[in-house]
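Standup notes
- DV: blocked on the single-chain target, sequence here:
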Amino acid sequence: MANLTKKLSLILVMGILFFSFTNLLSAKDTGTNGDNRSYVIATASPGGTYYPVGVAIATLVTDKLGADGISMSAITSAGSGENVQLLKNHETDFAILQGLFGSMAWQGKGKYEGKPEREMRSVTMLWENVEHFVIYKEYAPTGNIMDMKNIEGKRFSIGKRGSGTETSGKTILTMLGFNPEKDFSLEHLGYSASATAMQDRRVVGMNIPAGPPVSAITQAFATIGADKIAVLEFTDEQLQKVDTEFPVWSRYVIKANTYPGQTKDIHTIAQPNFLAVRPDLSDDDVYKILETIYGNLDFLHNMHKATYAIKLQRAVNGLPIPLHPGAVKFYKDHGINVPANLIAK
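- DV (later): unblocked, structure below
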C-alpha cells in the first residue's frame, strides 16, 4: 500500500510539473504569463558589442517596466544569423541584427537566396557596426584592406559559423575581389577567442565588426601591442565597391586613442546595427520598451560607449526591414517621420 501511495504521489507530482512546463512554454510563445511578460533578447558572443548592449537594454527594461509586468533577459548566440532563426522559431522575442544580415534575410538574397525571412520587424537603429579587419603589421605594409593579399593561405578568424560577422566579412572581401574560402585558411572563432588566438599566433588576423571600443580589440592592442598589429583602412573607392550590392555601409573614423597605443585615426567603414522583434508581440509593449530606451539613454551610456550613437532623431535611419506597428506609433507620437517603405503591409 505504501509503495502504491508513493507511485501515485510521484505520478501526481510529474503531472503537475508537466502542466506547469506546458503552461510556461505557452506563455513564452505568446510573450505573456498572466499579467507578466518575460521577454528574451538575443545578442552575440561575449567580447563584442552586441552582448553588453543587449544586457544593458534588458536590465533597463526589467528595472523600469517591472511594475508593469514586463521583464527582459539577454542571451548569447552566434550572432545575426542565429538570431534570425531564433526569431523565426519563437525562441527569442527581440534580437540585435546587422543591417546587412537584416537586408539579406528580408529580401531573400545572399545566404537567403530565394528564401526570404519575414518573421521579424524593426524596432530602432542602435549603433554603427564598425569593421575591424586586424592583421599583424608584418603583413600590412600599407595599412589598407588590400594588405589582406599578404596573408593568403594563412589562418584568419572570420567569425563564428552562421554569424553576421562571418557574412559581413566574406561579403566585404568578395566585393573587393577576394575569394575568402580559397584565399585564406578560415577559422570560425568568437571575438574574445579571436583575440586570444592572435595573441598566441594561432591566427594572423581577425574580423571584428562591432561598436568601438570593442573589448576584443582592446584586448589585442593591450596584449600584443599597437606596434605589432594594425586595423586595416578603406579608401573611398573601396567603400563604393563594398557598398554596391547591399548599400548599408558608410565611412567611419575610429578616433585616435580609442584603443591602447593607437595614436592615429583609423579610416574604416561601418553598417547599422538594429533592434528587431517578432511581429506578433504586443504593440503596447513594444511602445513601452521604446519609451523606456529613449527616456533613459544616460543609463545605457554608462553601460557601453557604443550606445552614445542611439538617438531618437536617427532611430529609423538605415533600417532594412519594416517597423513593428508599436514602433511606428511611438515614432509618430514623437514627431519622427516614418518613411513609407518602413510601414509593414
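- Follow-up: The chain has two domains: 29-128+275-342, 130-272.
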